[in-house]
Amino acid sequence: MTEPTYRGVEGDEELAELARVLNEGFGLSGDEELRRDWIADQPQEELRQVRARRTRGAGDEMVATLTRIPMGHYLGGRPVTSVGIAAVAVPALRRGEGHARRLMRAALEEAREEGFALSTLYASTYRLYRSVGFERAGTAAVLQVTPERLQGIEPLEDADDTRVLELTPDGEADARALYESYAPRHDGYAVRSSEGLWWRATFPRQIRSEGALVLEGDRPTGYARWIRT
Fold first, then answer.
1. Label partner for 112 (CA 20 to 30 A): which of 151, 185, 222, 228?
2. Is the pTM of this model over 0.85?
């Protein structure tokens, strides 16, 4: 029997197959076109898969997939290279065969050969990722608020010439500059070294964020982003 193989995703047929695997792997009921739109926004050279022989019929099929995100994290005030892992999925009928573990091990070996010092991800399950060497690190917080809870909050006083403006595309350069001055002083913050990483910050969950920019006089001193769900 042919051994499963780890490699990139090539051609329109495999990209369509990837859309189906993501829909099934994440239990999504939406149109596969939505998955194709998401795939189209990813660097094609960073898509990975494991292919194995079909359980029925001839040929092979995609049995596990992930997306690599070359990036970095600030540690001790210095950037440390890292490869992020996202969109790990296995079709329902191929689970329990060890393909996800095979995929992750191959991806980590590839990253090590390329010289990455770290690998990071948001774990949906601890058992799989701990089995290949990941451990918990850092924190992630999600704050949710309903508009009704905002009623009665006093607006910011302008006594110190402080203003809060809508974060428009014209203010994105100021927001990026604020992040770049803040992040190196806090361990674990991402090194947003590409437009793709900034896109992920601007469109979390593939939803365009809204935001506010804080000015003291004419000097930007803070910003915030949020999404409506």
1. 185
2. no
